Amino acid sequence: ASAGVFLRVSVCVSVLCVCRGLTVGPAPRPVALVVIDVQNCFVPGGENPVPGGAEVIPVVNGLRSRYGADFDLVVMSQDWHCADHVSFASQHPGYSDYDVMQLDYNSQGALCTGPSPYAVNCTDGIAHALNQTLWPDHCVINTTGAEFHPQLTTESEDLVVRKGYRCEVDSYSAFYDNGGFRQTELDGLLRARGVRSLVITGLALDFCVAYTALDGQRLGYDTYVVQDAARGITQAGVDRALADMQAAGVTVIQARGVGRVL
Ligand code: VGL
Ligand code: ZN
């Protein structure tokens, strides 16, 4: 029996955090479950591992089995990179994994600088400077690393949104590339179905989950992030992402354990 998508504010009243649910009302329907980048490349053993990344799989699968009727739609995003993608440290001599480098783009989203084969001479000037974290080669188009994790529940009617396949710009959010130059099809797919709320899960909490949630909220969806159905790359990044999301109006909820609200 489905009890609706409960969204409650937990009130912690003791050191043991005994939490009492305070109902703030069900999420406006239709509700989409959004599963970000639960791919082989992002779990330990993959090319760009998120610590504990595989632990989200039973939580996401459990949300589907317990609350399946409450989700009108399930969307999976898939990081889907060119083999020589600009976000790979291997493309930038002298740089290492997890370094941050500045990438300059013109107003059309062309890459203006760098040793990348995609850089062009921007005669119209530099319009956007992006700080790009450099990653190990990961989630390359049509490789095992880019496939959804074999233990993740998928259904034939799930929608799949691929991102990051423009070689010269990264795309953390499932809605836009990092420069905001181009949209994916996600907003259009959601709007076509009248979706009003997003329940976001997956990897990595401090990158693709957070960017997607911030864009979702900005685009007008009631946006919820399921913290225990997500894992981040660094604790500092997770702390910052949670604070940024909450400041933007995203609601952080739990699927399991003390204070769970789903
Ligand atoms: C991601 C780093 C690089 C993510 C994608 O899914 O969070 N992180 N590409
Ligand atoms: Zn990526």
Task: Provide a descriptive summary of the structure in words.
- Strands 7-4-3-8-9-10 form a 6-stranded parallel sheet.
- α3 packs parallel to α4.
- The protein has 4 helices and 10 strands.
- About 7% of the residues have low confidence.
- Helices cover 18% and strands 23% of the residues.
- The protein is globular and about 50 Å long.
- With 262 residues, it is of the alpha/beta class.
- Bound molecules: pyrazine-2-carboxylic acid and zinc ion.
- The site of zinc ion has 6 residues, from loops.
End-to-end separation: 14 Å
Low-confidence stretches: 7-25
Question: What fraction, in percent, of the residue positions are helical?
Answer: 10-25%
Biggest β-sheet: strands ordered side by side in the sheet: 7-4-3-8-9-10
Mean pLDDT: 90
What is the element string, with H for helices and E for strands? Answer: EEEHEEEEHEHEHE
CA radius of gyration is: 19 Å
Quickly give the structural class.
Answer: alpha/beta
Q: What hetero molecules are bound to the protein chains?
A: pyrazine-2-carboxylic acid, zinc ion
Strand content: 15-25%
Apparent shape: globular
| Biggest sheet descriptor | 6 strands, parallel
Count of DSSP H/I helices:
4
What's the β-strand tally?
10
Signal peptide: 1-21
Keywords: Hydrolase, Metal-binding, Pyridine nucleotide biosynthesis, Signal
Enzyme class: hydrolase
Protein name: nicotinamidase
Task: Provide keyphrases for this structure.
pyridine nucleotide biosynthesis, two-stranded antiparallel sheet, 262 residues, binds pyrazine-2-carboxylic acid, Isochorismatase-like_dom, binds zinc ion
